[in-house]
Amino acid sequence: MNGTKRASGRRIVLWRHGQTAWNLERRFQGSTDIELTDTGLTQARRSARLLAALRPDAIIASDLRRAAATASELAALTRLDVTHDAALRETYAGSWQGLTHEEILARYGEQYTAWKRGEPVRRGGGELETEVADRAAPVVLNHADKLPENGTLVVVSHGGTIRTTIGRLLGLEAHHWEGLGGLSNCCWSVLGEGARGWRLLEHNAGTLPEPVLGDDV
């Protein structure tokens, strides 16, 4: 931070958007701009009521409609402005986008298997996971650096982008990122600031974070 003293006790809540029709159909959305379903909007409203209790200091979000609409529910409760940033969009996956899981396996089975093994793969000719982290993680860190002591940043984004961002912030090697697992619609993960950097406090949570008792904290 250019020699300045970093605020301590900060939290980053990485919140996945609500359900879309393509989620139900198991279609790879990527950067395609798909809206929330009515269920997705209901999910966003429920989750927003929970997250508002954390009294966030800032909200940033992908500019894709499914993330922006999710973020707006929290903004309405907290009266915070949402900063939208295209760098928080989901992974661009080229020819995979719009295909179902089964269609991807049928057409790009070898590429899919290599990706699942942790190899650097341009799925559908799109972005590498490391490139997604290269664009998203600096945006998250930049906004986290502006938090007050014990402040909370909510990042509203997409499953793949959240996973790669968490992996980068935790300092994990890219081939280990898949081990974090996915996020359900409108669930979130929480990173907390520790003595040696960011650490994962909650993953794929749908309830408010609870203090860790009896651990090495």
UniProtKB/TrEMBL annotation:
Gene3D superfamilies: Phosphoglycerate mutase-like (3.40.50.1240). SUPFAM superfamilies: Phosphoglycerate mutase-like (SSF53254). InterPro entries: His_Pase_superF_clade-1, His_PPase_superfam, PG/BPGM_mutase_AS, PGM_Phosphatase. This is Histidine phosphatase family protein. It comes from Streptomyces endophytica.
